[in-house]
Structure to design on (121 residues):
């Protein structure tokens, strides 16, 4: 699938749509999910144009890959849910049709602030 420049996260990255920002650096933007499924539900997205994790794994630079993983950790720390200081969380990426992905820009969901429950329903 080619990258759709009109997806909602592309618009957020361009500043065309507002978001409740948690963190931003050279590689990632993080914001609160508009429809939270747990007490804490954050999204972490790479700044590059990648549709999903498979696309990212094949095309992203090593720096972007490290940047995304470090970004997840930094956001978890900022939200107080990382293992150092908090009680942990779930990081989840839906990938394409069977994964239930709705927005075609790679994103990790971070769920926490309470027990997250079963892995798959
Ligand atoms: P997924 O099903 O993995 O593609 O998840 C997409 C997520 O994006 C859902 O949890 C939505 O609630 C969330 N979402 C959609 N639009 C926005 C928005 N404008 N700001 C924040 N989160 C959004």
């Amino acid at each position: 699938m080619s990258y759709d420049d009109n997806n909602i996260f592309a618009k957020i990255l361009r500043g065309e749509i507002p978001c409740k920002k948690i963190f931003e650096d050279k590689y990632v933007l993080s914001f609160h999910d508009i429809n939270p499924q747990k007490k804490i539900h954050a999204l972490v997205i790479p700044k590059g144009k990648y549709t999903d994790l498979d696309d990212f794994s094949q095309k992203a630079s090593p720096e972007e890959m490290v940047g995304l993983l470090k970004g997840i950790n930094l956001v978890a720390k900022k939200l107080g849910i990382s293992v150092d200081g908090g009680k942990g969380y779930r990081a989840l990426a839906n990938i394409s049709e069977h994964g239930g992905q709705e927005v075609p820009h790679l994103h990790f969901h971070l769920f926490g602030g309470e027990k997250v429950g079963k892995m798959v329903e």
In short: The chain has a mean pLDDT of 97. Residues 61 and 67 are 10 Å apart (CA to CA). Residues 62-79 form the longest helix (18 residues).
